[in-house]
Amino acid sequence: MPVHIIPRPSQDRGNADHGWLKTFHTFSFADYYDPEHSSFGSLRVINEDRVLPGEGFGTHAHKEFEIWSYLVSGELEHRDSLGNVEILKRGDVQLTSAGTGVRHSEHTAGSVPVHFLQIWARPSTPHLQPQYYTRHYTDAEKADKWVKVVAPITEEGVKPEREADGPTPVHGGVTMYASLLSPGKTLEHLVPGKEGDGKQRKVYVHVIQTSGYNEGAAKGNEVRLSGGGNDVLLKEGDGAYVLATGGETLGLENVGQGKAELVLFDVDAE
């Protein structure tokens, strides 16, 4: 099958300014509901949040989700019913495998707002015992190349320890990559799967809003996503669904003036 690229413009996502919280929802979440954008395979939530100092999300419960935070700027304090207390900073990824149930809270630490992505995926195995993982990835590691920041715990080389090097373990079929792409530079991504098997694969690309919150409209850096003879321009806050078969190659070129921060998800169908 050919490569299909379906843009998800920032201005079409759910967004809200609550004063203490400025947020964008790629998929249906909270008061935002759109049946055409409720999930993508096992990927259920991509929220881009900014929270003012002294504010945050009070203690609340989760179960049967893999939930992780990707820190863009500022500091985020995490507390949970497993006894974990941690302040997360730029480059950190913190993942909670909620399993049978966990309670946690997240608040801005320090004197500046925190900017982070909150991501949820459905686990491949139900009724797991809750687990907690943290990893750190430097800007130098991400410079003009992909870094695998989240990967299935069953994948070779993924370490099950709370803190370790390599990808953050997830109990589900999602792999997440991150990059800081310089102007004029290009990255490629090989869609996983056996070439010629005819099976459809899912990829989601998102350009992080590093230039700031803009009430739903994308701005700032610009990236060209291409594959199978198709291409689309993505500004900050924009994303794109990609449907392809294994062995296809996607290209991402920074056609803007500044460094673009990108994340990419390979997603298993449920």
TrEMBL record:
Record domain Pirin N-terminal: where: 15-120
Top-level lineage group: Eukaryota
Pfam families: Pirin (PF02678)
Residues the entry annotates as binding Fe cation: 60, 62, 104, 106
Keyword Metal-binding: yes
Cofactor binding, per record: Binds 1 Fe cation per subunit.
Gene Ontology molecular functions: metal ion binding
Record InterPro entries: Pirin, Pirin_N_dom, RmlC-like_jellyroll, RmlC_Cupin_sf
Keywords attached to this entry: Iron, Metal-binding
Cofactor(s) essential for the protein: Fe cation
Protein family membership: Belongs to the pirin family.
Name of the protein in its database record: Pirin-domain-containing protein
Species this protein is from: Calocera cornea HHB12733
Lineage: Eukaryota, Fungi, Dikarya, Basidiomycota, Agaricomycotina
